[in-house]
Amino acid sequence: MPAANRVLVVGAGIAGTASATFLAEGGVEVDLVEKNAEVSALGSGITLQGNALRVFRQLGVLEQIEAHGYAFTTVGLRAPDPQGTLLVEMQDVRTGGDELPATVGMPRPELARILVERAIDAGANVHFGVEATQLEQHDDGVDVTFSDGSTARYDLVIGADGLHSQVRSQIGIDTKPEPTGMAIWRVFTPRPDSVTRTDLIYGGPSYIAGYCPTGENSLYAYIVETADAANFALSGPERVERMRALSEAYHGPWDDIRPFITPERGVNYTFFEAHVVDAPWNRGCVVIIGDAAHSCPPTLAQGAAQSLEDAAVLAELILGADGLDEGLWRSFTGRRVARARTVVEASVQLGQWLIDHDEKADVPGLMGRISALVTEPA
Q1: CA–CA distances in Å: residue 58 to residues 55, 296, 312, 372
Q2: What is the DSSP letter of 123?
Q3: I want to staple 105 with a disulfide (CB 3.0 to 4.6 A). Which of 39, 214, 287, 370 is the partner?
Q4: pLDDT one-digit tens code per residue, 85-138
Q5: Is the peptide bond before 280 cis (omega within 30 degrees of 0)?
C-alpha cells in the first residue's frame, strides 16, 4: 500500500508530469493542476542527457522522445575564428547507460505534449487553468483551495511549479533563484545539413556560442553573454538584431544558421539563475521538487535530468512505504539534495570560470566528475 492514496501535483512541467505518471501507475489517485490554460513551454529546444533518458525509459516515453527528437553521441568544439574550425569531436558520455543515446535534443513544446499525454494515459486527472491558492495542513492531510473556488483534501501535495514556485512560498521557504551574471539568447530555427550534433564555441565577443539539433528539420541555437537587464526592454526585432550581430563573430555551421535568425521566428532572452533549497524539501505533507527545489544554468544541460530524478526517487519512496513519516523524507533528501547541489554548483562554477577568463580552470575535470556522478542512478 502506498504512503499516500490521494496526491495533488502542482505544475505540469517535467517534474510534475513525471511524478503524476509514476504515482498514477502505482495506483495512487492523482490530481495534476497547471495554471496555464493549455500545454505550454518556451518555443525553443531542450538538451536531454542520458540520465534524463533513463527516467524517460522508466516512464514509457523513450520511444516517443527519440522519434520526435534528434539523438547524437558526440560533441564538437570549434574555434572562434573566420572558418569556425572544428578543433575536436569527442564521444559524449552515455550517462544513461551504453544502450541509450548520449544526448537527445528536441523541441520543448513537443516534450511537454508527450509528458502531459502520458500522465493522462496513466490515469492522472489533469486540470489546466487552475491554481492552488491556499494550503492548510492538518494531522491527516492537506486542505487545498483552488482558483476556481473548489476545495479538496489530499494526503500529499507535490509542488513542481517551477523557478518561481508559489508552493515554495506558501510553505514558508524563502530560498529563491539568484542571477549568476550570465544571460542567454535563444532562437529556434530549421536545421541545416551542417548541424548533426551539439558544437560549442568558447570565446569571441561572447562566452559561448552553440547549437543543438532537435529534429530532422529543427534546431535551437544560443549565445551566452554577460547579463544586462536593459535587454529585457528590447523589442522583438531589436532582440533579433542583437543576436544576429553577436552571431557574426562565429562561423562554420553558424553561417548556415544566421539567415534563419529573423523577426518571424523571434529570439528569447533569459538570465542564468541558480538556487538549491536546503534539506528538508518538505514541510509536513507538502514537498517541492524540480526547479522549485533547485535550478542551475544550462552550462551542463542537467536541469531536466535533475527534475526527472526527483520525480523518480520521490515516487519510488511513496509507492514503497507505508506512511509519510520522517524516515521517508530523510531517504528522499538523502538521495537528492547533495546530488542536486553538486550539479548546481558545478554548473555555476563552469560559468564563473568563463566570466573570470580563468586560464587554469579544469573544465574537462569538472565535466568528467559530473558525468561520473549522474551515470550512477539517483
Answers
A1: 5, 24, 9, 21
A2: T
A3: 214
A4: 999 999 999 999 999 999 999 999 999 999 999 999 999 999 999 999 999 999
A5: yes
2: cell is 502506498
CB 66 within 8 A of CB 50: no
What one-character DSSP code corresponds to residue 191? P
User: How much is the mean pLDDT over the chain?
Assistant: 96
For residue 316, the 8-state DSSP code is H
Query: How do beta strands 218-226 and 178-189 pair?
Result: antiparallel
Q: What is the DSSP letter of 56?
A: H
What single letter denotes the amino acid at residue 375?
T
Query: Distance between CA 253 and CA 358 in Å, rounded?
Result: 27
Distance from C-alpha of 52 to C-alpha of 302, rounded to nearest angstrom: 8
Evaluate whether 125 touches 31 at the Cβ level (below 8 Å).
yes
- Evaluate if residue 42 carries a pLDDT over 80: no
Separation of first and last alpha carbons in the chain: 23
Tell me the three cell numbers of residue 142.
492537506
Check pLDDT > 70 for residue 41.
no
Q: pLDDT tens for residues 242-259?
A: 999 999 999 999 999 999
16 touches 112 (CB < 8 A): no
Name the superfamily (CATH) of residues 6-69+108-177+275-375.
Answer: FAD/NAD(P)-binding domain (3.50.50.60)
Cell of 268: 528569447
Q: How far apart are CA 58 and CA 311, in angstroms?
A: 11
Q: Please give the grid coordinates belonging to residue 170.
A: 506558501
